[in-house]
Amino acid sequence: MTHFLNQQPPRLLVVRNDKLGDFMLAWPALACLKACEPAPHVSVLVPGYTAPVARLCPWVDEVIIDPGDEADHDARRDLLARVRAANFDALLTLFSTPRTGWLGWRAGIPLRLAPATKWAQLFYNHRITQRRSHSAKPEYVYNMELAEALVDVLGLSPPERPAPPYWPLSTHEQDAQRRRVAEELAIDPERPWVFLHAGSGGSAVNLTAEAYARLAQGVASHLKESVSPVWILTAGPGEEDNADALLRTLEDMALDAHRLPARDGLGDFALSLAAADLFIAGSTGPLHIAGCLDRATAGFYPARRSATPLRWQTCNEASRRLAFRPPEGAGETDMHAIDLEAAAERIARHLAPSPTSEPST
Predict the structure, then answer these.
(1) Cα–Cα distance, 21 to 73 (Å, whole number)
(2) Are 114 and 127 in contact (CB under 8 A)?
(3) Which residue has the higher pLDDT, 5 or 170?
(4) Could you tell me if residue 207 is inside a domain?
(5) N or C end of the chain, less CB within 10 A?
(6) Distance from C-alpha of 312 to C-alpha of 306, rounded to nearest angstrom
């Protein structure tokens, strides 16, 4: 431990090089690390896809691109050379793979910490047993526990666990995003805005477009006309046609619906979500971006044990988080079994202003 205390601030490499949602759920752990005394220098190893969002993270000092499992020999050699040259004091791998463990070992990083799962743990000299497959805690809590274990090994002064928002945008930035969308779509910024992401990102089980349309109609039916929401549809790459079809369906239902205009890459899209009063989606990357921004969220989850609402809980305040899944006895991916009427009523209740509270913006 003294070895690391002699090199202040320590230089850390944190790895979460898989999906966007997984990376967003690493932000609480990154916030834990940066809140230490002394504050470490934090680099992250991420795929090129999530790099634009990583560069916006206030808890990250440097972004290193992982060329991926299919990278050629030259790309892997260059990555190893860069990691080795950075002289990291510690490697924190939030989701371990043999290739990542091999990279840290080959680069000579002296302290290497990861969950004690799979044979990849052989490359690490500090292992934390978590049993994530039991899905007993939220993913972001598992990540924070790993960060806290690293803090303890390094001998840093541990902070209290940070609280949401884990992506704390200034009021000025949030207002700017709200004004931008209002001007682009010519919509009333005083009405509640519900962002709806019907895509799945290729991994999450989600409701069908038809089910989302019925949900939107149900929400509207539970609200007075004075608080009728504006529906703003978002879409990932390759999901635009489906979003446009859903838009036409909502318009046919006489709902005030729009498509979020194209954004300049993933980072710009992520910032746009700060304009939402509520974000509805399956357990996808955009849902977890909204959670990091502490926007209100309504997530739709399958009944699969590895994908429960608890395990993949958004990291916003508990009072701003709604979750829906098929009932007990339904098939793992039988999203049709979710009671959409009950979900619509709960979402509408969340949108309706309380007589004793300020309206959300």
Answers:
(1) 29
(2) yes
(3) 170
(4) yes
(5) N
(6) 9
pLDDT band with cut points at 50, 70 and 90 for residue 354 = low
Task: Provide the domain count of the chain.
Answer: 2
How far apart CA 337 and CA 272 sit, in angstroms, is 32
Helix (H) or strand (E) holding 142: helix 139-154
Contact 272, 182 (CB under 8 A): no
Beta-carbon contacts of 88 under 8 Å, excluding residues fewer than 6 positions away, are 11, 12, 13, 43, 107, 109
163 belongs to a structural domain = no
Q: Are 195 and 280 in contact (CB under 8 A)?
A: yes
- Dist CA 207 CA 198 (whole Å): 7
Statement to judge: residues 193 and 322 lie in one domain: yes
Question: Average pLDDT, stretch 280-299?
Answer: 97
Q: Which domain holds residue 298?
A: 171-351
The yes-or-no verdict on residue 2 having pLDDT over 90 is no
Q: Does residue 342 sit within a domain? A: yes
Which of 23, 154, 178, 26 is closest to 91 using CA atoms? 154
Q: Which among 342, 133, 177 is positioned nearest to 267, based on CA atoms?
A: 177
Burial class of residue 316 in the structure, from the number of CB atoms within 10 Å of its CB (0-12 exposed, 13-18 middle, 19+ buried): buried
Residue finishing a domain among 154, 189, 207: 154
Residues listed for the chain: 361
Q: 192-206: per-residue pLDDT in tens?
A: 999 999 988 666 688
**CATH number of the domain that 131 lies in?**
3.40.50.2000
Whole-model pTM: value is: 0.94
Q: Using N-to-C axis directions, what is the helix angle for 139-154 and 27-34, rounded to 10°?
A: 20
